[in-house]
Each structure stands twice: as C-alpha cells, then as structure tokens.
Amino acid sequence: QVQLAESGGTSVQAGDSLRLSCLASGGTFKNYAMGWFRQYPGKEREFVAVISGNGDHTYYSGTAEGRFVISRDNAKNTVYLQMNRVKTGDTAVYYCAAAGAIILWSGMRPTDFGFWGQGTQVTVSS
Q1: How buried is residue 44: exposed, middle or buried, by Cβ count under 10 Å (0-12/13-18/19+)?
Q2: Torsions phi, psi for 103 (to 5 deg)
Q3: How far apart, in whole angstroms, are the C-alpha atoms of residue 77 and residue 100?
Q4: Is 9 helix (H, G, I), strand (E, B) or coil?
Q5: Per-residue pLDDT averaged across 100-110, rounded?
Q6: Which of 55, 77, 53 minimizes the C-alpha distance to 5?
Q7: Over the chain, what is the mean pLDDT?
Q8: Are 24 and 38 in contact (CB under 8 A)?
C-alpha cells in the first residue's frame, strides 16, 4: 500500500552529524507510524526510533535516545532520522518502515512493521 525509499546515508567521522530521509509514496502517509531500524552484517534488524502518524509521540532505543531525533513532514510524505554525535558503532544499513495501528514503545520489533525501504548505508570512521 505504501512504498518507501531511504536516502542520505554516507561516510562520516565519529562525532559528526547527518540526516537520513525516507520518502513514502502511496497510501495515506499520516495514517502510518514510521520507524527506523538498522542492521549489522550477520545480525537481526534492530529498532532505532519510531514516530506516530501525527508526530506527537516518539520513542527511541537506549542506544539512540539523546543522540538521534526522529521527525516527519507529512506535507512532504517524509520521515527523517537526525543522527548526532555518531559513533563507529552506528555503522550499519538503516531502514525505514511503516506500520498501521500499533502501540508505540521503546522496543519495537521488525515484525510490527509491514512496509520497508531498501536501506541506506551509514559508515562512521574514527
């Protein structure tokens, strides 16, 4: 029902900031909670952040909170992940995801989301 496309992944140095974007097409964007996940090679996809449809609720993983900020612009059908003070451990493929009516919390699972983008690579060097 909705298609997602991430962008903004790049190579940066530890301590830098960058912003990932995810453009959605199809569906009614404001009806979807939007999440960010990341995946290390050989590991399961892990939760980073989630935001409610109207943007009034956000939750973060323990690793992300205090450094990352998730936001959305429903007029542009776009969700963002602002990554601040990045660390080498943030190196991963980052995916955005969309979900219908779900309960939001700080431990979202990949199975909670029905739609996924193709991912964008973030590489942090020291």
Answers
A1: exposed
A2: -90, 125
A3: 15
A4: coil
A5: 93
A6: 77
A7: 97
A8: no
DSSP class of residue 31 equals: G
Task: Report the alpha-carbon distance of residue 20 to residue 75 in Å, rounded.
Answer: 17
What is the DSSP code string of 63-80?
A: TTTTTEEEEEETTTTEEE
Torsion of CA 49, 112, 92, 27, to 10 degrees: -80
Distance CA 70, CA 97 (A): 13
- How far is residue 59's CA from residue 50's CA, in Å, rounded to a whole number? 5
pLDDT per position as a tens digit, 34-91: 999 999 999 999 999 999 999 999 999 999 999 999 999 999 999 999 999 999 999 9
Rounded CA-CA distance 92/114 in Å is: 21
